[in-house]
Amino acid sequence: MARWTKMMEVGKEFRFKKGQKPWNAGTKQIAIQLCKECDIEFSYHTWEKHKGREFCSKGCASANRLRGSTTPLQTRINQSLAKTKEKEFTGFKKQLCRRIRLLNEYKEWRLQVFGRDNFTCQNCRARGVYFEAHHIKPFSLILFENNIKNLEEAKMCKELWNIQNGITYCQGCHIEIDKSRGRNRGWRRSPTGN
Question: pTM score, two decimals?
Answer without folding.
Answer: 0.50
